[in-house]
Design brief:
Radius of gyration: 20 Å
Largest sheet: 6 strands, mixed
Number of helices: 11
Structural class: alpha/beta
Helix content: 25-40%
Distance between the termini: 39 Å
Number of domains: 1
Shape: globular
Strand content: 15-25%
Strand order of the largest sheet: 6-7-8-3-9-10
């Protein structure tokens, strides 16, 4: 796979009302491969959301550079093309819904891109299918559950036909059922080839990615596979981060003599391996 996003020595400062600056991202560099699933984790204030908005060119680097599919986010001529290729889904679905009918809301993005109306109808239909919300196409969004609203927000992003979607804590405000529904949609989109970036504070979600970035106080603290990252439990504890329950449980069972294979990262994997022991 080739690098879709290249971040080189990125620094970003917020300017406060008194004119002083606050550095939110401090000299980080990494690559995200095309078609990959990357999770970004870290405590509140670690710079995760600021990084996400830089990737989407909603914010521009104070120093350093980000290339999205070879396009520089600091180049004004590339701005809209970058935002077409990289869509974003935010934490609160209510802040992303702009229309009173579900299908109209999903059509909003393509309409602003000047897409032909006949193609918009097709995109809306496919996007609703991707998030399993076809039966709600004529519903009012305010009548939906939190998880359903977030799936509609994701459908709006999908209708833009992006190559990459950045999910900025999309399950943070949802109950367990809503979280499960949204995570299934995210994984389904990744399986279809969309480069996926998931910012989350749920370690079980991060374990489902194939690449994990750990941020701390604006810096890149760790970068590797879920197995590599979550094997460093002492360091994660120092950063006030947990280890996903299945990984922790698999380690405890292994220490007590249960013969489990290495690399268990999800509940499904752990259950499957335990059932095979019977």
């Amino acid at each position: 796979m080739s690098a879709f996003i290249e971040v080189d020595d990125l620094k970003f400062d917020y300017i406060k009302q008194d004119g002083t600056s606050l550095r939110a991202v401090d000299g980080i560099s990494f690559r995200i491969e095309r078609g990959s699933f990357t999770a970004i984790i870290g405590q509140n204030g670690s710079g995760k959301s600021t990084l996400a908005k830089n990737i989407n060119a909603l914010l521009l680097p104070t120093e350093g550079r980000i290339l999205v599919d070879g396009l520089d986010t600091a180049d004004p001529a590339s701005l809209w093309e970058i935002r077409r290729r990289v869509a974003m889904v935010f934490q609160n679905p209510d802040n992303q819904i702009v229309s009173s009918i579900v299908e109209d809301d999903i059509a909003f993005g393509p309409e602003n891109l000047g897409v032909d109306p006949s193609e918009i109808r097709q995109r809306v239909r496919f996007a609703l299918k991707d998030v399993e919300m076809e039966e709600y196409r004529r519903k009012a969004p305010h009548l939906l559950s939190g998880g359903q609203k977030q799936r509609i927000a994701i459908a709006g992003a999908v209708a833009m036909e992006p190559q990459c979607i950045v999910f900025d804590e999309p399950t943070a405000m949802l109950d367990p059922r809503g979280r499960s529904e949204v995570l299934k949609v995210i994984e389904r989109l990744h399986d279809k080839g969309i480069t996926t970036i998931l910012i989350t504070h749920f370690m079980e979600e991060a374990a489902r990615a194939d690449h994990v970035i750990v941020m701390n106080k604006g810096r890149l603290e760790m970068d590797g596979t879920p197995t590599e990252i979550f094997s460093m439990q002492d360091r994660l504890k120092e950063l006030s981060l947990d280890v996903p329950a299945p990984i922790y449980l698999a380690r405890i069972l292994g220490e007590r003599g249960v013969d489990l294979p290495p690399g268990i990262e999800t509940t499904e994997e752990l259950v499957r391996c335990l059932c095979q022991l019977q």
